Target: Dipeptide epimerase
Amino acid sequence: MFIKNIEIGEIFIPLARPFKTALRTVNNVEDIVIKIETDTGLTGFGEAPPTAVITGDTKGSIVTAVRDFITPAIVGMELDNLDGIFRKLNSCIVKNTSAKAAVDMAIYDLYAKQHNTPLYKLLGGNKNLIETDITISVNPIPEMVADSLDAVDHGFNILKIKVGKEGLKDVERIQAIREAVGPEIKIRVDANQGWNAKQSVQIITAMEDKGLNIELVEQPVTAHDFKGMQYVTSHVTTPILADESVFSAEDAINLIQNGGADLINIKLMKTGGIYNALKICDIAEIYGVECMIGCMLESKLSVSAAAHLAAAKGVITKADLDGPSLCKIDPFTGGPLYEENLIRMNETPGIGIEKVPGFNE
Ligand SMILES: C[C@H](N)C(=O)N[C@@H](CCC(=O)O)C(=O)O
Ligand SMILES: [Mg+2]
Model:
């Protein structure tokens, strides 16, 4: 069975509410989707969001990378030569990790379908239920408190609070939310690179002194500031999670060996897909570091690919896979079940998504 062609489409899904971080505000999911077909008619699907402020990828660059570089490199290759396909995918163009991720997940989708197995079982089959957090956008404090209470009402036990735009005021934000939701709810804080190293230590220490019981703080400083990550990690007791600082296996090794983080957030859109994400899982396992699986502003297709990886690997102990919960509608058929805070894997072969809008059957 060989790869016959790659079709490119686009999806548009309005968000239930604007998504706001220290880096950007977004109102809709507007992602590139791809369909890979084999000579036997088997199809695999993938999705790539244009998260320009984090990965550098735009809709135009994703389409160009898939159409002009990846397609000529892998069309005609035998699906059984999985390793050869991924080596070609990763060497035919540098960077462009979101385009690579879309193609990588479609190949894994096909491979698992060919073997009539759900992808998570093929990759390791560690668990079939995942608990995700939900993101609370950065807004005025009363709005964030109301959003947090609403999320808890809807069954979420873990909140990921976006901060990083107003320095020390973030302590008030988290204090107000903690007082409103009570002690049982887990609170994660994501600064999206919004603080500097000294400011981070001041803010996180203030949260510790107030007993706000923060589970972890994600990416306090600029992505390339590995020394800053190391400074923060060594000066606070709250665990520090590296997100934008870790795209590749090399980043993970550098950061871990230099004490630049306690935890690593793996996202398929940063690694270029599951093939490279598995390398980070192995590195983390070797060093005894736990991982979170995260997502960009993505819909159910690519988030489900990430869910399969999370379900497969024991080293992935935390999930930020709330993309589908942030969308107003679910335009897909099939896939894992999203039940508020729980993602339940099922027995459908591949990733499980059976119909993707924009492609004819
Ligand atoms: C959507 C997810 N909860 C999230 O916050 N992901 C990113 C930001 C993604 C984006 O801007 O699209 C993160 O920083 O963890
Ligand atoms: Mg983050």
About this structure: The first helix runs from residue 59 to 74. The radius of gyration is 20 Å. Residues 21, 23-24, 51, 135, 160, 190, 192, 243, 294-297, 320, 322-323 surround LRSVPJYC (ligand 1) (CB under 6 Å).
